[in-house]
Design a protein that fits this description.
The protein is α/β, with parallel strands linked by helices. The chain folds into 7 domains: about 90 residues, no CATH class; about 55 residues; about 70 residues, no CATH class; about 180 residues, P-loop containing nucleotide triphosphate hydrolases (Rossmann fold), CATH 3.40.50; about 170 residues, Rossmann fold (3-Layer(aba) Sandwich); about 60 residues, no CATH class; about 100 residues, Alpha-Beta Plaits, CATH 3.30.70.600. Helix content is about 35%, strand content about 20%. α1 crosses α2 and α25 crosses α26. The longest helix has 19 residues. Belongs to the helicase family. PriA subfamily. It catalyses: Couples ATP hydrolysis with the unwinding of duplex DNA by translocating in the 3'-5' direction; ATP + H2O = ADP + phosphate + H(+). It is an enzyme of class 5 (isomerase). Component of the replication restart primosome. It holds the Pfam family DEAD.
């Protein structure tokens, strides 16, 4: 849609019997308040809360925004501008969503605009772009102004356009090959050769299939026979017609011809001529039409006949969950890996749907959706929607609209699925609830999807089921305190037993010279035995790339990132050094730039090197790697997992992705290559994460009657955490961890808010952090404020970093008051001229 920016002034003065409406809108910008706009009188009946409207913001910018409230109060501070256009006749954001978004903005110390910006798929957000078009009165032949070569180039381009008849500023820059072209635009406007306007376009476009059908006049038997006679001398066209009639039984099914056939089926058939198809359309024998179709082609009817029986222990757990739901809104299902939690989820989803409610099933990683979606589709068919970041904008809008319309009653998705427009939730399932992947780090809102799900359940009166083999310490504490129901599944499903776990002392093996690169003799021998038995292996290494460090053996030089305070990692496949924080990369060096030595070697190892070494040492193995580098493409996860399931590959090397919920029947061995790198990390959750990771990846070994084996390589097998992993003793681990948390004042006994100060100048970053600390101490007291201090990685993307930790009592009133004080402290620092370029980032409940 094209909008003149001076659309309405006061063209209609409201009379006494007219109601003048105003709307408060949420702009998708980090603004601390809502803005009020006036509704043109003739559009009063169209305004809906949760609908999108287009407004002018600033001098020329136009944006789409969400209507948050409708009222009759004009703003006192400024004169309200008119709404320019209504996009929706019905809400795209529901009332329960708006309530949730307001809570998120308040709880996570961000703006409502930031929440809306994160929540809405990009294709539902519209913004204007400046465009130029030939002036209607401009005649190039009779124009009296001389034109420069750049101006001629623009006019030539505009004159050659057939459809759009306009160019964006971006296209002008590309055309001229220069960054600064505004003087050229200004000159053409002065010469009245072009005019400038703002164009706002809806980014969502439905998927359209081009189809063909036989023209209605040929459907009678006599006319069809006559048509065959006419085409006897045109064999290529006759072949097309015969192919159409073979696929479309026009006489057996009276609606078949109306539905038609995809044009691509005819034009891409190897024995048919595409030009013959087009000739039949041109001559009116076939008629071409467009059909809007779903991007998720599934059976129109749910596949409800697929049934399965819960085991005795699963049935008991299901019944216990339902009993708890009678008195509590939240239940924790603590089930060991392979205990069959997914079957219980499916049974509970069925019950929720039978009760008329919607269901949201959250998973921490896109990798998990591949296997579980297949299982759920067999049960719920077209009622199931899928939502994750690898989907295109248009696909996400279709799921969004499908939830609004009721087409999708069950949605399985990653953390962003909490933003979908549910308004009748009956059940929320948060699988692997302990996972840090549920936490959003950048940009705001820095939310935890698990906590948002709990609040969604509260707002919509839905039940919430949290599931994990290794629950978060905070979650288990709430269950032990009786705030959540607690249901335990302590045995694996069927005949599968827990895997045998063994420790391998790599320090001793190095002394005995039995290590092969980074593989102990025990691990390498066990891999060979499993491959010989036609069984599969998963190897876990919590670092991607070929080598984390490259160093000169003579002078100690290490290549560093230009933008971050980290060393560059070597990636062999692309033969480059890469920063895992900002993406900076450069070619691998062969000669030290500091001393000139050629003794530049890689130090350490990542998944790429493990894969490489294994292919050399075990050439009979078919090895695949699953990490961030190999799964960037849209369907890469599915392909890797599919190949492993079909045993096309028999060794899967990966990072944390391989630890999360994957279920492979033929995996009998899991190897953890370097356990030490996971344990030794400066964070109060380091041991919790290590325990969870070891147990989760161990759980991939041994399913469906096969007893698995787990080998953990470590240079210090005496560490206490290994004993708890080997005995699979979560309760003992929890008791030790909760005692440490209470003693040192960490969650769940205290709330933590981490303040990060960023600035491109190191000195100003430190000064701003000191100033913010002072403001916080004045308001919250010295005991509550720790820092400031520089983190281990003190510069990322050219910004220096300082961190301040705030510890608060868990009481709601204390937390609410403290957040108000934190906001005041941030404002006080930002008001100081020297700190206006500083970024102050609050992170509530950091992970």
């Amino acid at each position: 849609m094209t909008l003149a920016l001076d659309f309405i002034s006061d063209q209609q003065t409201p009379t006494a019997d007219r109601v003048t409406l105003f709307v408060d809108v949420i702009l998708p910008l980090p603004l601390p308040r809502l803005y009020t706009y006036r509704v043109p009188f003739e559009l009063n009946d169209r305004v809906v809360i949760g609908g999108r409207v287009i407004v002018q913001f600033g001098a020329k910018k136009t944006l789409s925004c969400i209507v948050a409230a409708v009222h009759e109060q004009a703003p006192k501070e400024y004169q309200a501008k008119y709404i320019l256009e209504f996009i929706d006749d019905a809400p795209v954001v529901t009332q329960p969503q708006l309530k949730l978004f307001r809570w998120m903005a308040e709880y996570y110390l961000c703006t409502l605009g930031e929440v809306i910006n994160a929540a809405l798929p990009s294709a539902l957000k519209l913004s204007s772009e400046s465009r130029i078009q030939l002036h209607p009165a401009f005649e190039r032949d009779t124009n009296e102004y001389p034109m420069t070569s750049q101006e001629d180039k623009i006019l030539d381009a505009l004159g050659a356009l057939e459809d759009a008849k306009s160019l964006t500023f971006t296209e002008v820059g590309d055309l001229l090959g220069v960054a600064s072209f505004h003087k050229v635009i200004k000159s053409l406007m002065h010469k009245e050769a072009i005019f400038l306007f703002e164009h706002t376009a809806d980014k969502y476009s439905p998927k359209v299939l081009k189809k063909v059908r036989l023209h209605g006049r040929h459907l009678t038997e006599s006319n069809l026979e006559r048509l065959f006679e006419d085409l006897t001398s045109k064999p290529k066209q006759l072949d097309v017609l015969m192919k159409y009639l073979q696929r479309v039984p026009v006489y057996q099914d009276e609606h078949a011809n109306h539905r038609g056939l995809e044009k691509a089926y005819l034009t891409s058939s190897p024995h048919l001529s595409p030009s013959a198809v087009n000739t039949l359309i041109k001559n009116g024998i076939l008629e071409q039409f467009d059909q809007i179709v779903s991007r998720f082609p599934m059976d129109e009817n749910p596949i409800a006949h697929i049934q399965f029986e819960l085991s005795e222990s699963q049935t008991a757990a299901r019944d216990e969950i339902m009993t708890y739901f009678g008195e509590k809104d939240i239940v924790l299902l603590h089930g060991v890996t392979g205990s069959g939690k997914t079957e219980i989820y499916i049974d509970l989803i069925r019950q929720a749907l039978d009760g008329g409610g919607q269901v949201l099933y959250l998973l921490p990683e896109i990798a998990l959706t591949t296997q579980i979606v297949t299982r759920l589709l067999r049960v719920f068919g077209s009622r199931l929607g899928i939502y994750h970041s690898k989907f295109s904008d248009n696909e996400r809008v279709e799921v969004w609209n499908g939830v609004l319309s009721g087409r999708f009653q069950v949605v399985i998705g990653v953390r962003s699925a909490v933003f979908l427009p549910f308004d009748n939730l009956g059940l929320l399932i948060v699988d692997e609830e302990h996972e840090s992947s549920y936490k959003q780090y950048e940009p705001a809102p820095r939310y935890n999807a698990r906590e948002v799900a709990l609040m969604m359940g509260n707002f919509q009166g839905a039940k919430v089921l949290l599931g994990s083999a290794t629950p978060a310490v905070e979650t288990y504490y709430q269950a032990k305190q009786g705030r959540y129901g607690l249901v335990t599944l302590s045995k694996r499903f069927g005949e599968a037993g827990m895997p045998d776990i063994e420790l391998i002392d790599t320090r001793k093996q190095r002394e005995q010279k039995t290590m092969h690169n980074h593989f102990s003799a025990d691990l390498l021998g066990e891999i060979e035995r499993k491959l010989g038995a036609k069984e599969q292996v998963i190897l876990f290494q919590n670092r991607r790339g070929y080598a984390p460090v490259v160093a000169c053996q003579d002078c100690g030089w290490i290549p560093k990132c230009n933008n971050c305070a980290v060393s560059l990692s070597y990636h062999k496949h692309s033969h480059e050094l890469r920063c895992h924080y900002c993406g900076y990369h450069e070619s691998m060096v062969t000669k030290c730039p500091a001393c000139g030595s050629r003794a530049v070697k890689t130090v350490g190892f990542g998944t790429e090197k493990i894969e490489d070494d294994l292919k050399i040492m075990l050439p009979q193995a078919s090895v695949q790697r699953m990490d961030l580098d190999t799964t960037r493409a849209k369907n890469a996860y599915q392909q890797i997992i599919s190949d492993f399931e079909k045993q096309v590959t028999n060794v899967l090397v990966g990072t944390q992705m391989v630890t999360k919920g994957l279920d492979f029947a033929n995996v009998s061995l899991v190897g953890i290559i370097n356990a030490d790198s996971i344990i030794h990390y400066p964070d109060f959750r380091a041991h919790e994460r290590a325990y969870q990771m070891f147990v989760q990846v161990s759980g991939r070994a041994g399913r469906k009657g096969k007893k698995g084996k787990v080998l953990i390589q470590t240079s210090d097998p005496t560490q206490v955490i290994f004993d708890k992993v080997i005995r699979n003793d979560y309760l003992e681990f929890y008791n030790y961890e909760i005692m440490q948390r209470q003693e040192h004042g960490y969650p769940p006994f205290m709330r933590i808010i981490k303040m990060t100060v960023k600035h491109m100048e190191q000195g100003l970053c430190e000064q701003a952090a000191i100033a913010l600390t002072g403001e916080l101490v004045d308001r919250l007291g010295r005991a509550a404020v720790l820092g400031p201090e520089a983190p281990y990685i003190f510069r990322i993307r050219n910004f220096y970093i300082q961190e301040i930790t705030i510890k608060l009592d868990r009481a709601h009133t204390v937390l609410k008051h403290a957040k108000l004080m934190i906001t005041e402290a941030m404002d006080a620092v930002k008001d100081q001229k020297e700190f206006r370029q500083a970024r102050l980032v609050p992170d509530v409940d950091p992970m």
